């Protein structure tokens, strides 16, 4: 073909492709050689640049995570932890890595329960130091696992030096990330906490200064520089992870935690180890589900809910197909899955967990008859619910008070990466609630987690997300707290069709469930991310909608006995869909301002 005709043909083809995709929203992207989907446009681009430069999905994931630690300080960072679910193409297998935070060795359940009770007495009396010790200050901080996890990913699966992958994050911290509405809302939420609890400002002064509490609020689009954190990253790039888990950054972490009332030691940091877990597997129709095992509850709840849904729908004659039936059955499936989460799940290194039973088809078949066409299931724990017969009741205090409000759901970040070699990464990481414990390890800008609130810190006491939990998740030295993080891959005939995960506390599970179901049933990924979502976590006994539901649906669910919350909210999902033409479609939930970045 002559050069001019070839040029014209290419232009016409590009125009046709652009026209065909003109209706695709800005928060989706296509790529043939790779894809990165995160809740930060800057982090997505950094990951995609690594792929373009010849790195694999694991290299891109490590660079992306460091970038998120800069650009999403309210959600994630080196002071937290996470879970990796990945497909390693050269090994032809899935790998699950657990780098969740750990309770320090000095933590004792009885001491912690007394701290909680004392704070509640002070809070009820309106005293300025009445903030929860499991949410704010040194007693909220678990031993961070994030950097250990990234170093392990780099060592085992990466092709680029760790220092090279940290360099873009250093530049982002020095030049500043773009402030967005999500950051501004989280910042204001923390400043409100400082105003509510004056003592907190004295305990967590470095955080107050980092956020510029005494100055004017930044505007959306402004550049927010993190010079201290850039210095910390530079030290890690030069000396490796030992700079973090030993001197000098480790010493700064211990000093900051203990100055804020905690009890962490250098031995806690030096003793941290990443754990490899066996990925959980389930089936839904002709699809295979691969997800994260405990101490994540995500995989168990997701597979159990899908099994119950499948078994209940198989009883269509019993449940009918009237309007609202699908939503009703989905809610009932979630309720049972979350009730089992509360009663049975925790750290598998400390308790025997009935994971195989809970994720089995026979178990779902026993639960399915409890899903009735009219009315909700019996109170979980009654004699008619078979899980008690098999496993005993566990300890759940039904009279425990519930927090007055959900936390501002800005904690946690999820991202997905895929490359041309077939490697797939789903990585969820967190510091728990917004800006974690509010403790900062100065002068390195490390924002420390408040992950100890994810434990059952006292029997029957709900955590910040109003989750009630059982004995398996009681706090204790060396334990890893139960999580809702749900990195997941879905396959058909052994080939991936979707990788996804989310952020948003327990709403991660319901959001991943909804998006996965929509895509598995043939809905476009962009539509799946914006469709109405429903969340139910057993306790409190209420449905939370992602937005205002249709009046007909609300009326029908109320008629069937459901309580509808006036609150609105959902998790934030990031996903990559693998299309029949070999392309990868990345999508970032618009609720958090993310953007995917593809490699042509």
Given the helix and strand composition, which structural class is it? alpha+beta
CATH homologous superfamily (4th level) name of the largest domain: Gamma-glutamyltranspeptidase, small (S) subunit
Strand content: 15-25%
In terms of quaternary structure, what is this? single chain
Large-scale geometry? globular
Tell me the distance between the termini.
Answer: 24 Å
CATH topology of the largest domain: Glutamine Phosphoribosylpyrophosphate, subunit 1, domain 1
Portion in helices: 25-40%
CATH architecture of the largest domain: 4-Layer Sandwich
CATH uppermost class of the largest domain: Alpha Beta
Low-confidence runs (pLDDT<50, min 5 residues)? 1-20, 381-405
Largest sheet, if any? 7 strands, antiparallel
Q: Please, could you describe this protein's structure?
A:
The chain has 600 residues and is of the alpha+beta class. It folds into two domains: 33-278 and 401-599, 4-Layer Sandwich (Glutamine Phosphoribosylpyrophosphate, subunit 1, domain 1); 297-377, Serum Albumin, Chain A, Domain 1 (Orthogonal Bundle), CATH 1.10.246. The strands form five sheets. It has a seven-stranded antiparallel sheet with strand order 1-20-19-15-14-9-8. Strands 7-4-3-11-10-2-21 form a seven-stranded antiparallel sheet, with helices on one face. α22 (551-559) links the parallel β17 and β18 (564-568). α3 packs parallel to α6 and α14 packs across α20. The relative contact order is 0.18.
């Amino acid at each position: 073909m002559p050069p001019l005709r070839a040029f014209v043909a290419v232009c016409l083809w590009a125009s046709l492709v652009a026209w065909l995709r003109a209706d695709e929203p800005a928060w989706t992207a296509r790529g043939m050689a790779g894809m990165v989907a995160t809740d930060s446009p800057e982090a997505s681009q950094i990951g995609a640049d690594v792929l373009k430069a010849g790195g694999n999905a694991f290299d891109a994931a490590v660079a992306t995570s460091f970038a998120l630690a800069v650009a999403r300080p309210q959600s994630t960072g080196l002071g937290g932890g996470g879970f990796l679910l990945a497909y390693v193409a050269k090994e032809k297998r899935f790998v699950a890595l657990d780098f969740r935070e750990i309770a320090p060795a000095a933590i004792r359940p009885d001491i912690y329960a007394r701290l909680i009770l004392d704070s509640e007495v002070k809070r009820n009396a309106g005293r300025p130091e009445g903030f929860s010790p499991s949410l704010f200050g040194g007693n909220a901080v678990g031993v961070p696992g994030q950097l250990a996890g990234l170093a392990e990913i780099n060592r085992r699966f990466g092709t680029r030096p760790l220092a090279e992958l940290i360099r873009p994050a250093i530049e982002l911290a020095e030049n500043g990330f773009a402030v967005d509405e999500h950051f501004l809302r989280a910042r204001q939420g923390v400043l409100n906490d400082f105003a509510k609890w004056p003592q907190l400002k004295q305990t967590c002064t470095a955080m107050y200064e980092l956020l510029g509490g005494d100055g004017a609020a930044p505007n959306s689009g402004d550049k927010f520089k993190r010079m201290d954190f850039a210095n910390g990253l530079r030290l890690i790039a030069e000396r490796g992870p030992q700079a973090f888990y030993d001197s000098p950054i480790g010493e700064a972490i211990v000093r900051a935690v203990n100055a804020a009332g905690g009890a962490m030691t250098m031995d806690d940091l030096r003793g941290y180890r990443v754990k490899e877990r066996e990925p959980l597997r389930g089936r839904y129709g002709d699809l295979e589900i691969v997800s994260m095992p405990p101490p994540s509850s995500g995989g168990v709840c997701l597979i159990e809910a899908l099994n119950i849904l499948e078994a209940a729908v198989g009883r269509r004659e019993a449940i009918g197909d009237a309007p609202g039936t699908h939503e009703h059955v989905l809610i009932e499936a979630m309720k049972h899955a979350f009730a089992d989460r509360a009663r049975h799940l925790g750290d598998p290194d400390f308790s025997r967990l009935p994971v195989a039973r809970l994720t089995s088809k026979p178990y779902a078949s026993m639960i399915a008859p409890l899903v009735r066409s009219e009315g909700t299931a019996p109170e979980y724990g009654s004699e008619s619910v078979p899980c008690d017969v098999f496993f005993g009741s566990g300890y759940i205090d039904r009279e425990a008070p519930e927090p007055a409000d959900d936390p501002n759901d800005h904690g946690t970040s999820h991202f997905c990466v895929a490359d041309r070699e077939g490697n797939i990464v789903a990585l969820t990481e967190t510091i728990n609630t917004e800006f974690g414990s509010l403790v900062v390890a100065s002068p390195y800008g490390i924002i420390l987690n408040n992950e100890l609130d994810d434990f059952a810190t006292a029997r029957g006491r709900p955590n910040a997300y109003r989750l009630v939990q059982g004995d398996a998740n009681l706090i204790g030295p060396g334990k890893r707290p139960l999580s809702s993080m749900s990195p997941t891959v879905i396959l058909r005939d052994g080939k991936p069709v979707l990788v996804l995960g989310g952020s948003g506390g327990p709403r991660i599970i319901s959001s991943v469930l909804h998006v996965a179901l929509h895509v598995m049933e043939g809905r476009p990924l962009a539509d799946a991310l914006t469709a109405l979502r429903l969340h139910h976590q057993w306790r409190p006994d209420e449905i939370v909608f992602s937005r205002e539901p249709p009046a007909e649906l609300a009326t029908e669910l109320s008629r069937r006995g459901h309580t509808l919350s006036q609150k609105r909210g959902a998790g934030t999902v990031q996903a990559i869909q693998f299309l029949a033409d070999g392309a990868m479609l990345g999508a970032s939930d618009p609720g958090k301002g993310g953007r995917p970045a593809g490699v042509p």
